[in-house]
Design a protein that fits this description.
By secondary structure, the chain is mainly α. The chain has two domains: 64 residues; 100 residues, no CATH class. It contains eight helices and no strands.
Length: 194
């Protein structure tokens, strides 16, 4: 084989190996991010409009959260927050609107206690998605219902669903599994006597 042909073959082999390495690395990155972020991966890639920008945004989130001092709650704090949640959930029977507002506040308080910044809502969701990807959609759904409630467009059943969503996130943040219990339906107004 003449030297020019040999160098051409070597160059082609190097290009093919480099392309395969690049493809393998990219595939592994995508697989790792999909596993870490779950449904949030697809949402972010779609929102960014491009795979490369979406994955870069997810990696930036992960780096930002790594710099935070996220901590677990001690047993006393867990107990205190569980008791507070029980009170909020009980309140739902008589005051669904107030309970949803209180549930949102309590979730924010737990996030703050864990070390998550509690500024702008979308940033909170992004931060929580790094460590709790399977419940972040619950947070978005609950907040959307709470916003509808604030605008006077949420039914009592919508509010009950918001409580279910908040409970899933709350339990995840507390480090406990959600219980099987359901959110009680609000009491019907007593019929008026004539």
């Amino acid at each position: 084989m003449d030297p020019r042909t040999m160098w051409l073959v070597i160059a082609i082999v190097v290009i093919v190996v480099a392309a395969a390495g690049w493809y393998w690395t990219r595939t592994q990155r995508t697989r790792r991010l999909r596993r870490r972020f779950g449904p949030e991966y697809d949402r972010t890639v779609h929102q960014e409009g491009d795979l490369k920008r979406g994955e870069a945004a997810l990696e930036a989130r992960a780096r930002r959260v790594e710099r935070l001092h996220i901590r677990s709650l001690n047993e006393d704090d867990q107990r205190r927050y569980r008791n507070a949640w029980t009170e909020v959930q009980t309140r739902f029977v008589d005051d669904p609107k107030g309970a949803v507002t209180e549930a949102d506040r309590l979730v924010g308080e737990v996030m703050n206690a864990r070390g998550y910044p509690v500024g702008e809502f979308e940033r909170r969701v992004e931060d929580v998605s790094v460590d709790h990807p399977n419940v972040v959609m619950n947070y978005r759904a609950a907040r959307e219902i709470a916003d509808q409630h604030a605008a006077g467009r949420a039914s009592t059943e919508d509010l009950r669903q918001a409580m279910v969503h908040y409970r899933a996130l709350f339990s995840e943040l507390l480090g406990t599994r959600p219980t099987v219990e359901t959110i009680a339906r609000p009491r019907e107004a007593a019929p008026r006597s004539r």
